[in-house]
Design brief:
By secondary structure, the protein is an alpha+beta fold. It has 13 helices and eleven strands.
């Protein structure tokens, strides 16, 4: 039980959030165990409104973009704030409190607060979903792990929120009051459009139903709307100040493809049927050999493979006509059988195959052979990735410049305050 709850907490920690600066690739996990047949795991100053971030620019925060506008949020030179801001309080008294239970102001950026509940938005969504699958006793037992996960999530996510606050504030400082009004109108319309799309995706028709759906995930529309505003403004500031997007020649794209070809590797996998005749189940190898020979002859005479599997097979998928779903190359315990599955043509039936404890006949239903995605299929994706990389680098440089004059005051011990400086 303890191990299960620890894994639950770990799941919550790993909630993704896109950051401005590049990060190293995580260490790849160990490969899954091979499957056996007995245990298969299932910038412009005109009066026109600034344009929102382009679709191919990588977002600065992993927040939903389908939430309606609320009237208690205002645009100002320090970012998006609530009309009533009662949560600030005496933030300095929080410095020694446990980060795992932190509330209120986490950090001041040029005097503007970043609140714990806003940083924890995605975290709390994950927690709410996880708790729906747990008993009250399990939830209580998991509290230490969840507090640790909460603290770790704050440490990882806060720098991105500081960056977003710096960028969005810089945008508002560069706009006239009229431009701010136009920007506000544009974002409200974006909310309405995406809200309609979200309702269609969920099969609901009213805003109230969407609020209920969000509440089940522990999130209010108001919080999601604020996150959306700040994220969009941060992206807009970067897009206006990052310079002209670079153009990449076909040769440059192809060179990138060649240098990163393993990223476009296709894993071989096969969908197949199996008739298994076990020695033990048949009272010994001689009897099993006789039985598999009879089945082989029936197949030669035109009998249906799936019907024979359902009637005679001792394998775990017999009741499903011997069907195995997509099986990746390298995942079967019996390497000889796997080799045959990747040798015979789809639609054909193998000869009798002998293993240590049984005889098999297999039929390949469908197969994807190992190889690489063709360049023509991915060159547009590569172009987008390269543009996103350039966008991220530009954003990082802008943040570095803004930090030179920014006053950033953490109100808790985050372990490595250099992340905020």
């Amino acid at each position: 039980m303890k191990q299960t709850l620890t894994l639950v907490a770990a799941l919550v920690i790993t909630t993704g959030c896109n950051k401005i600066a590049k990060v190293d690739n995580p260490v790849a996990p160990e490969p899954p165990p091979r499957l056996s047949f007995d245990n298969r795991p299932t910038r412009d100053t005109s009066k026109s409104a600034p344009q929102l971030a382009a679709r191919d620019e990588k977002p600065l925060a992993n927040v939903a973009d389908e939430i309606p506008a609320y009237d208690d949020l205002q645009l100002n030179e320090k970012g998006v704030t609530r009309v009533t801001n009662s949560r600030i309080g005496d933030a300095s008294t929080n410095a020694d409190r446990d980060l795992g239970t932190a509330t209120g102001t986490l950090v001041l950026v040029n005097g503007e607060p970043i609140f714990a509940e806003d940083v924890l938005l995605e975290f709390e969504r994950r927690v709410a979903k996880t708790k729906q699958r747990m008993t009250a006793a399990q939830i209580e037992e998991a509290q230490p792990e969840l507090r640790a996960a909460r603290a770790e999530f704050l440490r990882r996510s806060l720098p991105m929120h500081v960056q977003s606050k710096l960028l969005s504030s810089a945008l508002l400082k560069s706009l006239t009051e009229e431009q701010k009004e136009l920007l506000d109108q544009g974002m409200k319309q974006a909310f309405e459009d995406s809200l309609e799309k979200k309702k269609k995706e969920l099969g609901i028709t009213s805003r109230g139903e969407l609020e209920v759906a969000m509440a089940k995930e522990g999130v209010t529309m108001q919080r999601m709307q604020q996150a959306f505003y700040e994220n969009q403004m941060a992206q807009l500031y970067v897009s206006q100040n990052a310079g002209t997007p670079p153009k990449f020649s076909r040769r440059e794209l192809f060179d990138y493809y060649q240098e990163h070809k393993e990223e476009y590797a296709v894993e071989g996998k096969v969908k197949w049927r199996q008739i298994k005749i076990g020695f033990k189940e048949r009272g010994g190898e001689p009897v099993a050999r006789q039985d598999i020979a009879k089945i082989e002859q029936l197949l030669i005479n035109g009998a249906d493979f799936s019907e024979l599997a359902e009637e005679h097979s001792d394998g775990p998928t017999a009741l499903n006509g011997g069907m195995w779903d997509w099986t990746e190359m390298g995942s079967l315990v019996d390497e000889n059988l796997e080799a045959i599955l990747f040798q015979i043509r789809p639609g054909t039936v193998s000869d009798v195959i002998k293993s240590d404890d049984s005889y098999h006949i297999v039929q390949v239903v469908e197969r994807i052979d190992p190889g690489y995605v063709p360049f023509e299929d991915v060159h547009e994706k590569i172009k987008l990735e390269l543009r996103q990389s350039q966008y991220q680098e530009a954003a990082a440089k802008l943040v570095d410049e803004l930090k030179k004059t920014a006053v950033i005051e953490p109100k808790y011990d985050f372990g490595d305050t250099a992340l905020l400086q």
